[in-house]
Amino acid sequence: KMNPQAFALSYLLLISAAVYGGSTSNVLRSVPNSSSGSVSSEEFDQYLTDPEKFSQSVSGSIPSSFDARSKWARCPSVSKVPDQGCCDASFALVPTSVMTDRTCIVTNRTDVVYSAYDPIACCDSCVHWSRDKCRGGRSEEVWKYWANTGIVTESCLTYPYFRDCRQQTCPSRCTSMGSRTVANDKRKGQMYYTVSSGVQGIQQEIMTNGPVEANFDMYLDFAT
Fold first, then answer.
1. Which CATH architecture has domain 4-18+35-209?
2. What is the mean pLDDT of the chain?
């Protein structure tokens, strides 16, 4: 289990460049459809009442720029922007990327890369549609799944959705680690929480502890 201070989750609007160390890219390589990583406003409001809220104190002034890639250069995952391929998987790719970054920042381990395939294929509450798990899901459920059940590493279940999105059953054995079982590769976090102290508090959280996840309202006319 990981240090409870090592992980943070933010559901407040945040400039994406701050999350990925100055890069304006995000995890989406195409325009998302109407169900990609989305929940109703009622579900979202309910989620905000669930995890513990952490108020990050702001020490000094916030700098005009901050590059997480430079501060944590020993962690290659901080510089990586995952490609979701043919699957609407941002709901799983973003949380697992943050988990990976925070694990490296705290432990200096670069070999623990959390698998987004695990919550997509194996967490029914994480996805919108059980018959097609590549039609979006709920990132808050991915965090709960990580804390309660655990998520395997990428070396156990490699993300497969680049050309073919039909493989959606939950494997019992790792696909790339011989006879090792999925259950034996699970890793849990002790807790997850929201940062409730405004934009500067979130900026301080990023500079102190590393990348966060941010969600925001998307209106129906977004693509127009």
1. Alpha-Beta Complex (3.90)
2. 80
